[in-house]
TrEMBL record, chain A:
<dbReference type="InterPro" id="IPR028082">
    <property type="entry name" value="Peripla_BP_I"/>
</dbReference>
<keyword id="KW-0732">Signal</keyword>
<feature type="domain" description="ABC transporter substrate-binding protein PnrA-like">
    <location>
        <begin position="57"/>
        <end position="356"/>
    </location>
</feature>
<keyword id="KW-0472">Membrane</keyword>
<keyword id="KW-1003">Cell membrane</keyword>
<protein>
    <submittedName>
        <fullName>Nucleoside-binding protein</fullName>
    </submittedName>
</protein>
<feature type="signal peptide">
    <location>
        <begin position="1"/>
        <end position="28"/>
    </location>
</feature>
<dbReference type="GO" id="GO:0005886">
    <property type="term" value="C:plasma membrane"/>
</dbReference>
<dbReference type="InterPro" id="IPR050957">
    <property type="entry name" value="BMP_lipoprotein"/>
</dbReference>
TrEMBL record, chain B:
<dbReference type="Pfam" id="PF02653">
    <property type="entry name" value="BPD_transp_2"/>
</dbReference>
<protein>
    <submittedName>
        <fullName>Nucleoside ABC transporter membrane protein</fullName>
    </submittedName>
</protein>
<dbReference type="InterPro" id="IPR001851">
    <property type="entry name" value="ABC_transp_permease"/>
</dbReference>
<feature type="transmembrane region" description="Helical">
    <location>
        <begin position="12"/>
        <end position="37"/>
    </location>
</feature>
<feature type="region of interest" description="Disordered">
    <location>
        <begin position="365"/>
        <end position="405"/>
    </location>
</feature>
<feature type="compositionally biased region" description="Low complexity">
    <location>
        <begin position="368"/>
        <end position="380"/>
    </location>
</feature>
<keyword id="KW-0812">Transmembrane</keyword>
<feature type="transmembrane region" description="Helical">
    <location>
        <begin position="57"/>
        <end position="83"/>
    </location>
</feature>
<dbReference type="GO" id="GO:0005886">
    <property type="term" value="C:plasma membrane"/>
</dbReference>
Amino acid sequence: MRGARMGKTGLRATALLLAGSLALVGCASDDDGGDDGGNGGGDGELRIGLAYDAVGRGDRSFNDSAYAGAQAAVDQLGGEVQEFTPNEDGSDRAEGLANLAEQGYNPVIAVGFAYDETIAEVAADFPDTTFAQVDGANELPDGTSKGDNVTGLLFAEEEGSFLAGVAAALKSPTGHIGFIGGVESPLIQKFEAGYVAGATAVNPAIRIDVQYISPAGDFSGFNAPDRAEDLADVMYGDGAEVVFHAAGGSGTGVFAAAVTAGKLAIGVDSDQYNTVDDEAQKAVIMTSMLKRVDNAVEAFITEFEAGDVQGGTDVLNDLSTEGIALSTTGGQIDDIQTQIADYTQQIVDGEIEIPTTP
Amino acid sequence: MSGRVVATLRRVGLSLLGPAIAVAVAMAISAVVIALIGEDPLEALEVMVDLGETPRAEVQSIVVIFNRAIPLFLSGLAVSIAFRMGLFNIGVEGQYRLATLVAAAAGAAVVLPAPLHVLFVIVVAMAVGAGWAGIAAVLKVTRGVSEVISSIMLNAIALGLAAYLVVGPFRGSAETASIVSTTPLPESAHVPPLTGLLTGLGLAEPRSELFGFLVIALVVGVLVAVLLARTRFGFDLRATGLSPSAASASGVNARTMTVKAMLLSGAVAGLVGLPQLLGSTYVYSTEFTAGLGFTGIAVALLGRNNPLGIAVAALLFAFLDRAALPLQSIDIPSSVVTIIQGTIVLSVVIANEVARRLARRSAEREAAAVTGAPPDPGSGSAPGNGPDGTQRVGATLPETTEPRA
């Protein structure tokens, strides 16, 4: 008896919940009155659209660096920056990018290779907007172009990683170092390949422990300091003396493990000596492999404003353009600067070929 | 006669109270959050419901909402089938990821005429989804392993396996590509978009295509609804969900039902990635939309495990997801949308319980008035029904609504 009545009530409640929600959605779709105004654009002022990689601004790394570049450009040239952060599963990347273009932001800069799939189709829809993609070439993997209005801002991560490997090997008397990658994807494998090549160039017999936090397709590895710390703990415990991480937000875990073990670590992307707050962690950050996304973004915007952007091409940032470098803050690699400068010269001169896959 | 009408009206009114309170509470909490970060809640609301300035932008927004709602609907549906049976299938995530990958790879490997090719991909995806869910089912009936634990574990394994397969044997993208993916599906495996339908209705042409999979999702939704509400199988499933011992006593084999329910749930889960696979990306890649299986749990809860309710819940979630874009234009972080979604689910669950108790009390008072008997002192705490969302694993489910004709 009771069960039957409960059921009936449940049914009614469900039906009404539906009706209520439908009404809510209905209201929402009907109301198209809201006129925002002021978004017209076209007054000649620089209006930059910046579409971030997952997580968005505040990652103390990649996205922040892109923002710093756009902000620096605005400080120089005037104008404004409109940001877009994709949702958790990244499913609204295309729509977010298109939204920026639709609202008249130009140039629109997408941060991260994750926009590979989407920027080509959005750029085709907005032929009058100039696009740039950090970490993505103009050419799609299948050989087609993403469009004449797309510029790829690329980085020779393997060159900087090579120098990181050189520095690590020089700072490891016993010849045992480590590498921790965030996600086992082609981009991060480029870091690994360069690092291994650099270390073996200095010491062919060196032992290099390589670990990735998460497999390809699972991006949790870029934001898992706890797992990074576990992996680094094991590496240091096994005798590794320097660990280089290319793991984004997980890097702090590597630094924490280095502090515990009293050993050294190498940061990535930005000068991590400056991004960590903890004095103890600063002490273990031997150097960072700098990937100057900020400079690349700022340079692109400056070129755009000057009307110099060709489009349909790539801009490669490497050691020769100083888009890639090793940081010296903290002074821990000052003693090996001669060797590093020597290798840098050889790379710039093309005397050293660095692999991009492990 | 008129007394019954009044009573029904009152009950309807009381039931309406649930969603009304829920929406009001969720709105209030979200408004407080927005105000706390120093933005204007009213402006936020205005921006959220504004679908665009031009007809084209409006249609585009609707397409975006539908394209997002279709996978969420399928995911919620998959979760709800297990829920109805008292099973908590948290494994939809792993089931759809693995199913989409295998279906993408298998679809690219065969040559078939158009309709058969699509059907082939769908069948493969459903089979893989069902098979993966079946592992949890078999573990439960043979070894008594809670499907909550096993499906979480199987998620981790599915993700790892999918990563291995897409990078290894199923890799179709160039070595140099940043995004590793399968070989693209040929034209014959594409589901044509429904955009023509929109323009045919006299609407402006949107920028994006409306997924043709919408039709398939609707068919699946109707089939599942009929199966659960109108067949012996559905009756047994719901009966087992409400009371395993009673169902067992009336001759339902609980073990068989567990396996069947999980297989069905997994088969529907296998479809979750297909709208995107067959409608826009045509490949499974390391960037393929993740997390739909988890959102599906919230959608099922919000839709109270009823196919129609799940459809509305999916649309509501998709509507809120789209709102994240214009919100960012007025400097409100998109995480506000996540907060709104969370508070809506929580509020709906709580409000439903409050409304249910009120309705119950009212009905009892009514009964007492008719029979002259005092109201049942034990009102308001019916056993075997936990609409507050607390899971009593394997015994009850959060809300088992009885769909009746």
